[in-house]
Amino acid sequence: MNRRTFLRNSAALFSAPYILACSRKDKPNLLFLWTDEQRRDTLAVYGNSWIQTPHLDQLAHESLVLEHAYVSQPVCTPSRATAMTGLWPHQHSCTANNLLLPDSIACLPELLHDSDYRTGYMGKWHLGDEIFAQHGFEEWVSIEDGYRKYYRAHRDKSLRSSYWNYLHGLAYEPDAVDGYYSRDFASKLPMEHGKPAFLAAHAIDFLQRHRRDPFILCVNFLEPHMPFYGPLNDLYDPHSIPLPENFYDPLEENEPLRYRLLREQYLQQGFGGHDLKSEKGWRTLMARYYGLVSLVDRSVGAILAELERLQLADHTVVVFTSDHGDMMGSHQLLAKTVMYEESIAVPWLMRVPSWGRRHHRAPGRFSHIDLAPTLLALLGRRTELPGKNLLPILRNGRPAQEPVFIQWNGAEGRAPVGHLGVSDQEAMRVHNVPIRTVITQEGWKLCLARSDKHQLFNLQQDPYETTNLYTAVGYKKEIARLRRMIETWQKNEKDAVQI
């Protein structure tokens, strides 16, 4: 797309001409919109009454809303690979961040295997070789240059992302010494030059060019992921932001040591210049995070508006979800990697034309492992994957029946050390402890850590997870039942991790 076309589409974020759709093959499209690090309770449909997301609210009003949706692992690469492949992290091998998804593992376009479809991937990938088209996606619009050290040896590391070339064309001077634009730099640009607007403009261009073709278009926003800074920083008054219900939960000694070390690290070091020893620091950080949620909503609105103008909405399945949540002050923790609800629970909306534009809810608890087989079924392809096609349940409004399983396979990077009287060696040990979690439809949640504290919660009675029942009197039978569920799941899915 040349500069003139891009600028025209950027203007279309607010006002685009009405374009009639021409005849097209009678196959449904898929528009897959996803964000990075967006917790479930950031949308009105999940109970949030004050974050401004009018376009996502409208989408939810016209969609099936899955009541409780969970990721396969609460960190970017493993979760993204599950969404793209329909495999558990231990099956697709991306068990930690920055691991390469093997060429032999098929993603959505490859699983669909239909040459009639035009395919595009736009935004953050984080599954290896970041800026290079791959896995059945014909068109590739990249926004991240920070993963180049993880490229495979045969890739040309001197090449830049699509977004880098866009900023260079606007005569922005790179802020990094190696000639790249940092995430911090991009987050401080005017809204019209930021990553969400950039992706929306490219998505609009894709829709215009392929309005006669069936298509799969994945648009993956970085926001509201850190650095928690953007053009809508001042949209929310920090003083009026409600603190999470579990903000003051002290994380007692019976909670995992890694979680307590993380909390102490945020307390002692803060984050991004925010002093997290005080409510004020947390409130300011939360206000900026919520501003990023609203920022993405505007670009989502522009893409959905173009779908309407092109008369493609009645032919297009629209899905919105995220790769994981963010603690954002709950238990005074930040980011993801833990098994609390705020980290593992995400929004999941699906607007399916054949079901009509009406709001309805899917009761129960659902897993992203079922996302790929369900989307493929909507496109007419039945596949053999670990997850289930949810359409028979969702069409009839029946509640989910199966328990949800979630993995943690150890953390990457430097462990939080130097706090709570814990040695560096002990901190690194718990940093790499694997966890397996089961959540039943009744709300029992068991988290088994190989060599850290286990957790048991009753989400019906304790939705904010302030009381770990694992060592309490009277729960041995429940723990044994839930443990057998995890062991059976591990055996069936050939998960060899010992807990």
Task: Describe the protein.
The protein is an alpha/beta fold. The chain has one domain (27-401): Alkaline Phosphatase, subunit A. The chain is built from 15 helices and 13 strands. The protein has helices spanning 3-11, 54-61, 76-85, 89-92, 108-112, 162-169, 183-187, 195-209, 257-269, 279-309, 341-344, 371-378, 391-396, 424-431, 476-492, and strands at 29-35, 64-70, 118-123, 139-141, 215-220, 316-322, 345-346, 348-351, 360-367, 404-408, 435-439, 444-449, 455-458. Strands 1, 2, 3, 4, 5, 6, 7, 8 and 9 form a 9-stranded mixed beta sheet that branches. Strand 12 (444-449) and strand 13 (455-458) form a beta hairpin. The longest helix has 31 residues, at 279-309. The N and C termini lie far apart (51 Å). The model is unreliable at 14-23 (pLDDT under 50).
Percentage of residues assigned to helices: 25-40%
Number of contiguous helices: 15
CATH C-level: Alpha Beta
Gyration radius, in Å: 22 Å
What is the N-to-C succession of helices and strands?
HEHEHHHEEHHHEHHEHEEEHHEHEEEH
| Overall geometric form | globular
CATH topology: Alkaline Phosphatase, subunit A
Proportion in β-strands: 5-15%
CATH architecture annotation: 3-Layer(aba) Sandwich
Give the low-pLDDT segments: 14-23
> How many structural domains does the protein architecture include?
1
Q: What name goes with the CATH superfamily? A: Alkaline Phosphatase, subunit A
Most strands sheet: 9 strands, mixed
Q: How many runs of DSSP E, i.e. beta strands? A: 13
Q: Distance N terminus to C terminus?
A: 51 Å
On the 0-100 scale, what is the average pLDDT? 94
